[in-house]
Write a structure and sequence with these properties.
Length: 572
């Protein structure tokens, strides 16, 4: 389906944090624009109702009743049709303050920024968080680590030495609470994607991002998670309430798909240590013993091996041994090996299949033990770069070098890069993660987004020790409003304007950008003025800059979102 440009494609632009005076050189609204650039009329977007302050368009609780309760699939992504899309600016909550800066934010955030009492009342005995005056404090507790998350992770590190020598770099935490586990691992050089669904009360992902910890809305249900196969070094579930042994172990099959060979799956909570814990689980010892044995049998059938078990923690390792996967080819075996028609990396609205995605034997350097250790891994050309059209070791090295030069230039245009003003960053349409790699020495993290319509480069991003997700920018991103400090895009409108409506992409950028946050929009000269015009209608200030090489065909917009408050009465 094609749209005219004005009806069609605007992609998300990212905001770069910049002092107000830095953005003061406004781009003039084009009236008679020079030949060769897009002409667009000025527009002013209205405020949304205050009821939209935490609006997540594709995971909207108000629309859940339209969808099936089977396997909680109503909590998966269900985006509104075009005629229901909002064309307004999402306001912050009453009393919103600019977020506390990293690293202080790891331990506290403003209550009015995430005004949910429910999680505080329900989880106070687990030491997840507590309200104190105008702030939420995060003591670092959790259901399975009442002695604090650092003590819990120390126990884990004792069991998995690779967590302290650079072997393990990327992790996923399913059912992440307020992301204390992922937050603790940041100090140990491990980058975690914390995953939790949207729900009516527990704004788990919003808390995580407010703290400055990587997180994304999602649930293991009927669709694959938006990550490539063989990507994470480690996966974790701490009493995450996912019914691992139900539905033929289909959720375990998805964990198996996204873990790289040699990667670890860590489980704490039922049924682990059932012998000593069953009385507190409102169950019987026989029931928990049966659950544990069923779990072990399913994991073994998928080529997981029990690696280590101590007290409340059990660890399994995904096999790198092809002889185990060969056994899955036996007729009537369950789970069976996925057939060749099941593309391992297809993960955007792709149903989870009840089969094992087996490691491709052509790869010799995808298994955990074969990768360079962090941080050498960051600049080592991954084996899977050869799967990308035009990809090679040389192309990877060139891209790596190019982004070092570009980020040096960005730093001159936006001195806030590298300061505590910028913590949560998104590269909206990355190739190999070069932008993120060039920012690696700064106190920030980057969510690398690869378009579901682009070449599949996300495995390369993960192989170099970075994190990211597949996404289609014609739709809303899986996050809460006001969760990123800087958005960066490189030719997104040029690439996607034939599919996506420009104003909706920009409005989505506005939704996910924090007040006073920044966008660096690198675009062809054809689109730059039109983007600036629409940005002005969203209360952004933008200025147009030259690229590092001063080419006429490409410009850089440095934009900043203003802090404003709703002029309407909240009904919340």
């Amino acid at each position: 389906m094609r749209f005219s440009f004005y009806l069609g494609g605007i992609f998300c632009s990212e905001k770069d944090k910049i002092a107000t005076q830095e953005v003061s050189k406004k781009v003039e609204t084009p009236k008679e624009t020079a030949a060769g650039s897009l002409q667009i009329k000025a527009v002013t977007f209205p405020e949304c109702s205050p009821d939209f302050q935490d609006y997540t368009p594709c995971t909207d609780p108000k629309r859940w009743k339209k969808y099936s309760v089977h396997r909680l699939s109503f909590m998966e992504r269900h985006c509104p049709p075009v005629f229901e899309k909002q064309e307004c600016l999402v306001p912050p909550p009453d009393g919103y303050k600019l977020p506390i800066r990293w690293p202080k934010s790891k331990g506290e955030c403003w209550y009015r920024n995430v005004p949910y009492d429910w999680i505080n009342k329900q989880k106070s005995n687990q030491h997840w968080l507590k309200k104190e005056g105008e702030k939420f404090l995060f003591p670092g507790g959790g259901t399975m680590f009442p002695n604090g998350v650092s003590h819990y992770v120390d126990l884990m590190v004792d069991l998995i030495p690779g967590m302290k020598d650079g072997t393990i770099r990327t992790a996923i935490d399913t059912g992440c609470g307020v992301a204390s586990w992922g937050g603790d691992l940041l100090d140990r050089g491990i980058l975690t994607v914390s995953l939790a669904p949207r729900d009516n009360h527990e704004a788990q992902v919003q808390f995580a991002l407010e703290r400055g910890i990587p997180a994304i809305l999602g649930i293991i249900s009927t669709q694959r998670l938006p990550f490539p196969s063989n990507s994470f070094d480690m996966a974790h579930c701490s009493r995450c309430l996912i019914p691992w042994t139900e539905f033929g172990g289909i959720y375990l099959l998805e964990i198996h798909r996204i873990l790289r060979p040699g990667g670890f799956w860590v489980l704490s909570g039922p049924p682990v240590n059932y012998e000593n814990r069953w009385r507190g689980w409102n169950t019987t010892i026989e029931e928990q013993k049966s659950d544990y044995e069923k779990l072990q049998k399913l994991l073994t059938s998928m080529c997981f091996k029990l690696y280590k078990k101590k007290e409340d923690i059990a660890i399994w390792q995904k096999s790198s041994d092809n002889s185990c996967y060969k056994k899955l080819e036996v007729p009537d075996n369950y789970p069976a090996k996925c057939d060749d028609g099941a593309e391992p990396d297809s993960a955007w609205y792709t149903p989870i299949r009840p089969c094992v995605v087996t490691p491709n034997q052509k790869y010799k350097k995808v298994a955990l033990k074969s990768l360079a250790k962090w941080p050498e891994r960051l600049h080592t050309a991954p084996e899977r770069v050869a799967d990308v059209r035009g990809g090679s070791d040389g192309a990877f090295k060139h891209d790596d070098s190019k982004w070092k030069t570009r980020v040096k230039h960005y730093k001159k245009l936006l001195p806030a890069i590298g300061t505590d003003k910028i913590r949560n960053v998104m590269d909206m349409n990355t190739l190999y993660g070069g932008f993120a790699a060039a920012l690696n020495d700064y106190p920030l993290w980057v969510m690398n987004v690869v378009s579901s319509y682009s070449p599949n480069t996300l495995p390369v991003v993960y192989d170099r020790g970075l994190i990211g997700t597949y996404h289609d920018w014609c739709e809303a991103f899986s996050t809460y409003p006001r969760t990123y400090d800087l958005l960066h895009l490189d030719g997104l409108f040029t690439a996607e304007s034939h599919r996506c409506e420009m104003k909706y992409v920009l409005l989505e950028m506005d939704r996910i950008l924090r007040p006073n946050g920044y966008a660096i929009i690198r675009e062809s000269s054809y689109f730059a003025d039109a983007v600036a015009t629409l940005a002005k209608g969203m209360k952004w200030g933008c200025r147009k800059e030259e690229t590092e090489y001063g080419v006429e065909t490409e410009k850089i917009l440095i934009c900043q979102k203003k802090l404003w408050y709703s002029s309407k009465q909240s009904s919340i």
